[in-house]
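One such given next:

>
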Amino acid sequence: MSIPQPTAATLGALRASGYIPRTIGEELRANLIDLLSSGGPMFEGIIGYNDTVIPEVQRAILAGHSMNLLGLRGQAKTRIARGLTGLLDEWVPVLEGAPLPEDPMDPITPQGRALIEKHGDAAPVRWMHRSERYVEKLATPDVSVADLIGDIDPIKAANEGLDYSDPRALHFGLIPRSHRCIFAINELPDLQPRIQVSLFNILQEGDIQIRGFQMRLALDIQFVFTANPEDYTNRGAIITPLKDRIQSQILTHYPASLEDSMAITDQEAQLADGQRERVAVPGQVRRILERVAFEARESEHIDERSGVSARLTISALEHLVAAGELRTLRNGTSRTAARLTDLLSVIPAVNGKVELVYEGEQEGPAGVALALVRQAIRREFPAVFPDPESIKKGKVEDPYQPIVAWFNRNELALLKDQTDEDYEAALSDVNGLGEVVDKYCPNLPSEDRPAAMEFVLHGLAAFNEIGQSIVGSEVTFGDLIGNLFDPTEED
């Protein structure tokens, strides 16, 4: 619930209102305790961290610690840092005219104290919303001490007739101007070591040094850092004395379950107006698409230290829906359902989202992406239909014999831009295919049934029961032996 902005406009009115100053750590702690007591959610849109990362963040806040969120790319580290603003008081008073957002009842700069001496209880006060109390800096090699801490401002000195030895000639950097705020530095290892050294005193003693000025500023800042593991970045490292001063290091991770991963993708995918109504995504296709990321994280062709961001499946889902929408536009129809053939369209979403090792570079990005899709199908197939490996061992009945026998004499070609009518008719020609789907997916919506039929074919091809070749946007299924000797096969 939004709280109206308080009306006290002077220091005297602020005193009369009963305002009691408290540090940002005390704010975060008290508001977290209230939130936990009421049972409300701490973060909006953070999925899969309820039993791991979030309790560690809560313990760090209760302990009053600075934090380093350490994890691979795409693990919501920045979102967590930004979400901490929800634990701040909605409005806090600041001294109007002071160089920093100072508490009117506890100014920390000479200029702020001078304002109080000059105006007394008439010193002007303004109210700062919590949305203004988050400062974020991306660490890049060109960041300087002046950017973070400050420097002498010759223009200010000249305009105000100040000597360079006067502290009023100083221009404060991002960190001092983040007084009473949350200050986040993303990709901390990218800061040069000499810049990291400049953070020592701020984290430990609270004082800063600018061009020989040693100022004992009682800065009140909640520091949050984010970093990739040092063994991956190779662009730099967090120097040991700085790590020692960051009080809590919290490890993030990728979603542990397919369901959590799907929820994140569905939440983050940016689909245009009307796309959801125009393109249905069958559950089996959706699960296979999500499983591509899980397979990528285990693939020997992909550098495991680089990670596979959640942005891969987000982009892939957007590509998948766009492929279905393009088909409706070309065929002049109002609605279609996504197909497994459409997964060929997600290759651009996979390319660039993963870093290949040498063997992967030899295969090529497109080859690796196709292999990931095939492996995702192979992994998902036994969860829906009988496992071909178990059939070979005689453990379960073989329902696929009529299908395999049909492909010993026939071929089936599927095109991405086929009309829904032609697509369904082509699948219906395969002997026994519809019966398998009806038996093992009895409650399947009619709109999802064709994709399930195609899923059976891709699954059998993944287990080498039938042949499969991919040329351009056409997928052809046929006799396994014939496909082995087909010189045009691209798989």
User: Anything to note?
Assistant: The radius of gyration is 30 Å. The longest strand covers residues 221-227. Residues 31 and 37 are 10 Å apart (CA to CA).
